[in-house]
Amino acid sequence: MVALRDRDTLYIGIDGGGSKCRASVIDAENRVLGTGVAGPANPLHGYAQTIDSIVRSAALALADAELPPDTLSELVAGVGLAGVNMPRLYHEMDSWAHPFKKMYLTTDQHSACLGAHRGGDGAVIIAGTGSCGYSWVNGRSLLVGGHGFPHGDKGSGAWMGMEAIKYLLMALDGLAEDSRLKDELLKALDARDANEVFEKIGGKSSSHYARMAVPVIECAESGDPVAVAIVRDGAGYISDLADKLWEQKPPRLSMIGGLAPRLRPWLAPHVVERLTDPLDPPEVGCMYFAQQSLAREAEEVKSATNKAGSSALFG
Question: Is-contact 294 76, C-beta < 8 A?
Fold first, then answer.
């Protein structure tokens, strides 16, 4: 256990997305003390699930840090969530009677960007269950994509899975060519025909479709033409995101997310050449956001106090 001083501020960075919620307890010297992972935390797909995942991941992070459960009320939380770029969902989550000392809420894009560039300016492409491009330069943000599954998120794991299932159903109806991808998808779904496929995927979430991205990528890497076409299409979109973000002149651009390492070789060469490795993970970016928000609040209080003092002196 790390010894804590009474004056130490304890932070918790919580990164919530369509597949999982990851939390890290971090001390005032930016040392990660413990980490916990729970289920999905995208309020678009369920407020109660999101709250549960946040609390569970925080409790697991405290346990990993060997800190007592009641430390939860002492934590300054930075929370970056998928979905809260929608004003309704942001208001819903920001109104939550949370268990933390303080909570600062932002989008998962912004916290991921802060993490990738250690609290500084830059841009990120997120390629995981969903996809989007985001830049933060000179206090101005730009979000490209991020419209959610199934309407957007091209190039993401969920999108690849959806495209693969579309192909599979057509192939099973004899309307598309057979391929190794067809066999691998049937194996992954433990299905034999179109009816069984639909039973396995009907009404499922984006994270369920994202699991189908693994056989797509593996088949593409082995040269299967159907899989190659899907991956190239998705990678072309991700390369276009990069070009759009560079128009904002970010000092750095990183690609993050579970799909990023497998997708990187398929990107346009000029994009790969300019990518930089992320410096810190998204949950640490959430902590940077909390630190910056806390500092801004302190500066506002100081400014207001000075203004009130001046008014009393010269009023």
Answer: yes
Percent of the chain with pLDDT over 70: 94
Q: Are strands 131-137 and 140-145 parallel, antiparallel or unpaired?
A: antiparallel
pLDDT at 25: 98
Cα(24)–Cα(4) distance, rounded to whole angstroms?
16
pLDDT average, residue stretch 5-11 = 71
Q: What is the pTM of this model?
A: 0.86
- Asked if 78 contacts 288 with a C-beta cutoff of 8 angstroms, the reply is yes
Cβ-based neighbour number of residue 27 at 10 Å: 17
Task: Give the per-residue pLDDT at 313.
Answer: 56
Nearest to 283 by CA among 10, 11, 4, 3: 11
Helices 157-172, 180-189: crossing angle, 10 deg rounding = 110
d(CA 58, CA 16): 11
Buried b (16+ CB within 10 A) or exposed e, 178-215: ebbbbebbbebbebeeeeebeeebeeebbbbbbbbbbb
Rounded Cα gap, residues 132 and 110, in angstroms: 11
Q: Do 155 and 235 form a contact (C-beta atoms < 8 A)?
A: yes
Taken in order 125, 140, 106, 32, the sign of the CA dihedral is positive
